[in-house]
Amino acid sequence: MTERVPVPDPVPDLVPDPVPAVPAPVEGALLRAAAARLPGGVVVVTVRWRGHDQAMTATSVVSASLEPPLLLLCVHADSRLREALDDVPGWAVTVLDDGAAPQADWLSSPGRPAVDQLARVPHHRAPWSGAAWLDSGAAWFDLRTVAVHPAGDHDVVLGEVVAVREADPARGGLVHLRGRLRPVR
C-alpha cells in the first residue's frame, strides 16, 4: 500500500480587487473653496518681454529640487506672462515681504495695463534674465526655463535657479489664505 502525501489546499485565484469607477469631476467652486484653505507664500513672477516688464502675483511657486536647484511655477495657459515665457530664456521671482500687500494686489488685478505694470512699483534687475526683482522682497530668484508641461488649464514651468538673493532676515513674508493676504514673521 502506498502512503498518501497530503496535498496542500489549492491557492485561491489571484483576482485583483475591482477597480472603482472613475468619479465625476469635482465642481470648480468646491475645489477653489477647499484650495483656499491651503496657505501659500505670495510671490511676483516677472519677465522682460519685447522691451516691457510683464508681472503677475502667484502662490503657485515651489522649490522642486536642490540638486540641481529648481523652482516650479504653475501659470494659466492663456495668460500674457505664459505667452512671454515662450519667447524669453529666463524669468524672475520675488518672494514678497510682509509689507508688500499693495504690490501683490496691484499685480493680481485684472485689467491692469499690459505696458508699464511696474511703473509705480520700485524694482531692480535680476542679474541674468534682466527681469524685475521687486524692492519689497524677502528673497529673489533668477531662473532659466528648462521645461514646460501642460496641466489642465495651467502649464507647469520648471526653472533652474541661476541666481538667488535673500533680504534682511528680519523681513517677514506674505501668505495667501482664504482669499486674504496675511503678513507673517
UniProtKB/TrEMBL annotation:
<dbReference type="InterPro" id="IPR050268">
    <property type="entry name" value="NADH-dep_flavin_reductase"/>
</dbReference>
<dbReference type="GO" id="GO:0010181">
    <property type="term" value="F:FMN binding"/>
</dbReference>
<dbReference type="InterPro" id="IPR012349">
    <property type="entry name" value="Split_barrel_FMN-bd"/>
</dbReference>
<protein>
    <submittedName>
        <fullName>NADH-FMN oxidoreductase RutF, flavin reductase (DIM6/NTAB) family</fullName>
    </submittedName>
</protein>
<keyword id="KW-0560">Oxidoreductase</keyword>
<dbReference type="Pfam" id="PF01613">
    <property type="entry name" value="Flavin_Reduct"/>
</dbReference>
<dbReference type="GO" id="GO:0042602">
    <property type="term" value="F:riboflavin reductase (NADPH) activity"/>
</dbReference>
<dbReference type="GO" id="GO:0006208">
    <property type="term" value="P:pyrimidine nucleobase catabolic process"/>
</dbReference>
<feature type="domain" description="Flavin reductase like">
    <location>
        <begin position="35"/>
        <end position="183"/>
    </location>
</feature>
<dbReference type="InterPro" id="IPR002563">
    <property type="entry name" value="Flavin_Rdtase-like_dom"/>
</dbReference>
